[in-house]
Specification:
The chain is mainly alpha-helical. It has a domain of 34 residues. Helix content is 83%, strand content 0%. The protein is built from five helices and no strands. The N and C termini lie far apart (54 Å). 0% of the residues are buried.
Length: 95
């Protein structure tokens, strides 16, 4: 079997030229954009497959901690307020 000693470093050098931080981010964005429907489908399938366990765990948490619902509501309220503010800032300052 013949070895390609000069070939590997050349290919590796070309790959490294393409692996700049900017290119890596662009490829990641493109990958996640192209596979969004697959990811959402996977999440939905996984939820329905494990739905009973998820609901049982949530019910148990509520029984163990009576203030769980209030804590959860407060967390969600804070989270969505931050998200809303960041979206407003993003719309006001497009780059």
């Amino acid at each position: 079997m013949k070895k390609f000693d000069g070939f590997r470093p050349l290919v590796y050098a070309r790959l490294m030229d393409k692996k700049t931080p900017k290119n890596v981010l662009e490829r990641k964005r493109k990958y996640y954009k192209n596979n969004k429907q697959r990811r959402l489908r996977y999440q939905k399938d996984r939820y329905w497959k494990n739905r009973e366990e998820i609901l049982a765990a949530r019910k148990q948490r509520k029984l163990d901690d009576p203030e769980f619902a209030a804590k959860e509501r407060a967390y969600h309220k804070e989270y969505y307020a931050k998200r809303k503010a960041s979206l407003k800032n993003a719309q006001a300052d497009p780059r």
